[in-house]
Write a structure and sequence with these properties.
alpha/beta, 17% strand, 327 residues, 7-stranded parallel β-sheet, Rossmann fold, two-stranded parallel ribbon
């Protein structure tokens, strides 16, 4: 049987696909090489995956109904879906809101329809539909850490609203069609092959080049930085344990530690051997000032706990950053 991984050339998707292949799974990967950031990084991630005989790749947009349903018909042995493709970026959602609805809402709906088709097959069928939600759904909540039972009806960005919409649509499909589904609210994921639009890459690049890092909220920012290996381990633990009865669940995947951004930057300074230049600025619309994951339910149900601290993970990221950029 095979696992479908969408967003397979993306940061989390490529790591998840690599882990699945390493344990002997057959993986069908989908990506459209969006130019939201330089696709060269995506091609490089995909290159190592294509070297594995168990990997099959299709370049396609998840919002393309015909392409996705044709994929499901061609690969009749698909029994699990890890849907990670999405349009990321909170601030960009204020620049181009349409692409967020197209990819994160319409694309998610198409994937749900694909999954519904797998459920109704005479043989095999769909065992589990796992998809990426986001810690952004917690929006304006001030209670920390964020728990899965907290309110999620006050998003502060369109990106967050689209990810919450994904959760609601999946709940509906699970109810209507008996779909075993799990949404994962990822907290700030970082590590080798990380996205260049995210703070770890931005910090490393700015410090190396001697450019100024702009910190919103006058630097009073805390984030739950989650190392990629921990996130992959959590994702696979969830994938391997679908709900006993066809239903929809949501879990947090994060480090369960809220790191002061100033401390994080100091770790980059140490790893790069250079001092950061910092400019303090007020907050911007859509920003969340602090995030922290309550992973009590995740640990209880899957035995998963994060292992890599920022003190360990940031040097590992910097090592990759130097190697990838030939510094």
């Amino acid at each position: 049987m095979s696992v479908l991984v969408t967003g397979v050339a993306g940061f989390v998707g490529s790591h998840v696909a690599r882990a699945l292949l390493a344990r002997g799974e057959a993986v069908v990967g989908v990506d459209n090489f969006s130019d939201y950031y330089d696709p060269i990084l995506k091609f490089a991630r995909l290159k190592t995956l294509r070297e594995d005989k168990g990997f099959t790749f299709l370049e396609a947009d998840i919002a393309d109904r015909e392409a996705m349903l044709a994929l499901a018909q061609k690969h009749g042995d698909l029994d699990r879906v890890v849907h990670l493709a999405a349009q990321p970026g909170i601030r960009h959602s204020m620049v181009d809101p349409y692409i967020y609805v197209q990819t994160n809402v319409m694309g998610h709906l198409v994937m749900l329809e694909l999954a519904r088709g797998l459920i109704t097959r005479k043989e095999g069928g769909l065992k589990h539909f796992v998809y990426a939600s986001s810690s952004s759904v917690y929006g304006g909540n001030r209670k920390l850490p964020f728990a899965i039972d907290d309110r999620v009806d006050r998003p502060v960005s369109l990106y967050a609203a689209t990810k919450r919409a994904d959760e609601l649509m999946t709940e509906t499909y699970s109810h209507l069609y008996g779909m075993a589904a799990t949404g994962l609210r990822y907290f700030t994921v970082y590590g080798p092959w990380g996205r260049p639009d995210m703070s770890p890459y931005i910090f490393a690049k700015a410090i190396h080049e001697g450019r100024t890092i702009e910190l919103n909220h006058l630097g009073f920012i805390k984030r739950d930085y989650s190392y990629i290996d921990d996130i992959v381990a959590g994702t696979l633990a969830v994938l391997d344990k679908p709900p006993a009865e066809a239903s929809h669940r949501v879990y947090n995947l994060g480090a369960a530690r809220s790191e002061d951004i100033v401390h994080v930057i100091s770790l980059f300074e140490k790893a790069l051997g250079r001092e950061a230049k910092v400019e303090l600025r007020p907050g911007e619309p859509g920003d969340m000032q602090e995030t922290a994951a309550d992973i009590t339910d995740t640990t209880r149900d899957f035995g998963w706990t994060p292992k890599v601290t920022v003190e360990q993970g940031i040097p590992l990221f910097v090592d990759w950053f130097k190697s990838y950029n030939r510094l």
